[in-house]
Design brief:
It is built from 11 helices and 13 strands. The protein is an alpha/beta fold.
Length: 377
């Protein structure tokens, strides 16, 4: 009896071993650690997509309220009264004089609501601008990391104190494609920053819980050529875009000699490009900053189309004394509304003239509309 049991156990073991060997040759994918890992990763990604926590829907009431606050429109003029005396009877009559109808204010701009998770207008962005290779292009590259963080934090605190109702989000605005005075090997008059430098900026932003803007000065190149080169970064939820018409040289004259230009077609291309990335990667809305300080830097502004996936900021990029900057803001930002506005402050160039000082948050909050994006260079 015991021999029979042992014999049956032995036969069972041999059969199991043969079955495993046959399975190994017939179905090798089940024994591959590499394929198994890929399958597991695919399953995990699918689960994340299915069970990704849904963002709460946009609070359109709060959104509209904030837009109206940012518009900062002057209150309507109240009726006045005038006493009229009858020359014959001497009787006096008080007459109410209604004010003349005020022209329609262009702010706030009526546009499509953004998708859930939009940063603007619920937070104000305060950004440091520059390039890590250069101490002359802005504070981002002028100071060491810790000193730069200290200075940026000081500006953030100033804005928090000036407008407690609007939380401040720090940002690093990095010139990723830099216009050049020489043509370069490909004749495009621009220099692309390596991934290693972009990665440094991303790591710096992470330390301050900030966001990153990659800025493009395309020279003789185009946004169509340059943006896809850095697409992997735009797929990240905390990376946004800045484009600089000043260095888009459609005239064929090299950068620095004349001011360049972008048309609404270029701005819309950038917005559509970002919107596709947002949709494909299930991201919250991106922000597109467009620098501007002359009429011709942005043509056909009325054709620019904000999208649910992309929030467009027209940034007043001119430097000089306060009066000059305010006039630029009035002429090219206020009068040609797009969606949101920004304002750039230059630590050096804004105070070159005697008896001039850098504009303060309190100064900028008096503007109509109030800028929601602030950049320091």
């Amino acid at each position: 009896m015991k021999r029979a049991l042992k014999s049956s156990h032995f036969l069972f073991f041999i059969s199991l071993l043969l079955l495993l060997l046959a399975s190994f040759f017939l179905f090798p994918e089940f024994f591959s650690s590499r394929v198994s890992y890929v399958r597991s990763d695919e399953i995990n990604n699918s689960v994340k997509k299915i069970f990704k926590p849904a963002l709460p829907p946009l609070d359109t009431v709060a959104y509209d309220k904030k837009l109206n606050e940012l518009a900062n429109n002057p209150p309507p003029k109240a009726p006045t009264t005038k006493v009229i005396k009858d020359p014959k009877t001497g009787e006096e009559t008080t007459v109410v004089i209604e004010p003349k109808p005020a022209p329609a204010n262009p702010w706030p701009v009526k546009a499509v609501y953004p998708n859930p998770g939009a940063i603007l207008p619920f937070k104000r962005i305060v950004a440091y601008y520059g390039n890590l290779y250069s101490k002359q292009m802005g504070v981002l590259g002028q100071y060491g990391e810790e000193e730069m963080f200290t200075k940026l934090d000081a500006e953030v605190k100033k804005w928090e104190a000036a407008d407690p109702a609007t939380p401040v989000l720090p940002a690093l605005h990095y010139i990723t494609v830099v216009a050049q005075g020489s043509s370069g090997v490909d004749g495009e008059y621009r220099l692309r920053m390596p991934d290693s430098e972009v990665d440094k900026v991303l790591a710096m932003a992470e330390k301050i819980n900030g966001i990153v803007f990659l800025d493009f000065q395309v020279g003789f190149s185009t946004l169509e050529k340059e943006l896809p080169i850095y697409e992997k970064y735009f797929k990240l939820p905390n990376v946004h875009l800045g484009i600089d018409p000043e260095f888009s040289m459609k005239s064929g004259i090299r950068p620095g000699r004349v001011v360049g230009t972008f048309d609404a077609v270029d701005v819309n291309f950038a917005a559509d490009y970002l919107a596709k990335i947002v949709r494909v990667n299930n991201l919250t809305p991106k922000i597109l900053v467009v620098h501007r300080y002359t009429q011709k830097m942005v043509t056909n502004y009325q054709e620019i189309k904000p999208l649910p996936e992309v929030q467009i900021v027209m940034d007043m990029d001119g430097w000089g004394g306060a009066a000059k900057k305010l006039n630029t803001y009035q002429q090219f930002i206020y009068k040609e509304p797009v969606l949101f506005t920004g304002f750039k402050l230059f630590y050096k160039n804004d105070v070159l003239e005697p008896n001039t000082v850098l504009m303060t948050p309190a100064d900028l909050l008096k503007l109509n509309p109030q800028p929601i994006y602030i950049q320091y260079q």
